[in-house]
């Protein structure tokens, strides 16, 4: 096991650190940024049906469900196909309405999650195309879906999912761009520009891992004593807030909630005091000014703010206790960079609290029973 950890203390840390490589593998042979093309062999046979879909229903659990929420944003933005994201466990018991031209897309790292598998079977029973975005090759979900795309992220051992999440988002981005192209929504120039941005992500993740590591560890030292934490983000970074909160609660047992930043005033703001860290994703995109107003509201109530923003933004220095910088990418791909500090932060907080990072209490890597 020590050898498998590659010299690191924990699988989770190893898996966080190997994300540049895992994402390069998830794009290898698929993303051709220089030519401006994207090829997904696993979808070739079903492409006509997929591109004519009236609606895509994404089903998943846990972290994979968060990746699905990012996928919804990406597919709607690039391909203009309406997407719904369902917890697989809810989908299976709601007698879901599935029409002929709907497509069910499931996301699963293990390919063995019972509820997600049930969604595949339900789709097939309804005569609807069932696609999988799966990491484990040959797993039950990979076998039972009509077609799909593997992550090629390599085995993930740590119970808290890290590299599978970013690889899932990378694959969903490729599906969204491919559909955008075949449906005639994206121009060749837009496609190429986005593929170039995607191809740069592994290097940019490496920059975050190298340049922000020390700062994140120092923030973890302060955060380790917290009892609650609030994670806020908007748009494509809202699922990152959910994922940040999930990572913290899973492995450090600190209660954490993720919310869309603007919803803060409908509840969570009541909880804010100087003991509660509030973690914002505040990159300079369309709703940046509104997020800054939310940060001001938190500061005015004595809350301490940790903000993730894009490199070179000095606008939060006087407001936030800590500012973590990630490189600029296309707005749509920001989750691939903004989630990295949250993964590292949870890891360090959990280690400092003496928690068993790779095997958190009561959790399983793969939930194969209901
Ligand atoms: C469990 C794991 C999570 C994972 C979820 C879905 O809860 O602890 O890390 O996100 O199952 O698993 P899947 O293998 O379907 O992605």
UniProtKB/TrEMBL annotation:
GO terms for molecular function: carbohydrate derivative binding; glutamine-fructose-6-phosphate transaminase (isomerizing) activity. Homodimer. Its EC number is 2.6.1.16. It catalyses: D-fructose 6-phosphate + L-glutamine = D-glucosamine 6-phosphate + L-glutamate. This is Glutamine--fructose-6-phosphate aminotransferase [isomerizing]. Catalyzes the first step in hexosamine metabolism, converting fructose-6P into glucosamine-6P using glutamine as a nitrogen source. The chain holds residues 243 to 612 of 612 of the full protein. One of its GO terms (cellular component) is cytosol. The active site is at 365 (for fru-6p isomerization activity). Keywords: Aminotransferase, Cytoplasm, Glutamine amidotransferase, Repeat, Transferase. It is found in: Cytoplasm. Transmembrane segments: none annotated. The gene is glmS. Residues 46-185, 219-360 form the SIS domain. GO terms for biological process: amino sugar biosynthetic process; carbohydrate metabolic process; fructose 6-phosphate metabolic process; protein N-linked glycosylation; UDP-N-acetylglucosamine metabolic process. Its main location: cytoplasm.
């Amino acid at each position: 096991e020590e050898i498998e950890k590659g010299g690191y203390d924990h699988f989770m840390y190893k898996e966080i650190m190997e994300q540049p490589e895992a994402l390069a593998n998830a794009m290898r042979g698929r993303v051709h940024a220089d030519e401006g093309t994207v090829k997904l062999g696993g979808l070739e046979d079903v492409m006509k049906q997929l591109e004519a879909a009236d609606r895509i229903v994404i089903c998943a659990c846990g972290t994979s469900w968060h990746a699905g929420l990012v996928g919804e944003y990406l597919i709607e933005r690039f391909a203009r196909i309406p997407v719904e994201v369902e917890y697989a466990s809810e989908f299976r018991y709601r007698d879901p309405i599935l029409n002929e031209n709907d497509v069910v897309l499931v996301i699963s790292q293990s390919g063995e999650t019972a509820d997600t598998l049930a969604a595949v079977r339900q789709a097939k029973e309804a005569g609807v195309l069932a696609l999988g975005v799966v990491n484990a090759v040959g797993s039950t979900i990979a076998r039972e879906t009509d077609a799909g795309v593997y992550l090629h992220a390599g085995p993930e051992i740590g119970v808290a999912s890290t590299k599978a999440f970013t690889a899932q988002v990378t694959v969903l981005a490729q599906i969204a761009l491919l559909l955008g192209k075949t449906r005639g929504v994206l121009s060749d120039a837009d496609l190429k520009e986005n593929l170039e941005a995607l191809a740069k992500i592994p290097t940019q993740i490496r920059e975050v891992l190298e340049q922000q590591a020390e700062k994140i560890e120092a923030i973890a030292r302060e955060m380790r004593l917290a009892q609650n934490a609030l994670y806020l983000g908007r748009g494509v970074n809202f699922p990152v807030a959910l994922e940040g909160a999930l990572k913290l609660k899973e492995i450090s047992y600190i209660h954490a909630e993720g919310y869309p930043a603007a919803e803060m005033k409908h509840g969570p703001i009541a909880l804010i005091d100087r003991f509660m860290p509030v973690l914002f994703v505040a990159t300079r995109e369309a709703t940046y000014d509104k997020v800054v107003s939310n940060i001001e509201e938190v500061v005015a109530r004595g809350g301490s703010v940790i903000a993730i923003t894009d490199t070179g933004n000095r606008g939060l220095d006087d407001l936030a206790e800590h500012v973590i910088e990630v490189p600029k990418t296309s707005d749509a791909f920001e989750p691939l960079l903004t989630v990295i500090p949250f993964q590292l932060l949870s890891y360090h907080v959990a280690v400092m609290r003496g928690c068993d990072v790779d095997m958190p209490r009561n959790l399983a890597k793969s939930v194969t029973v209901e």
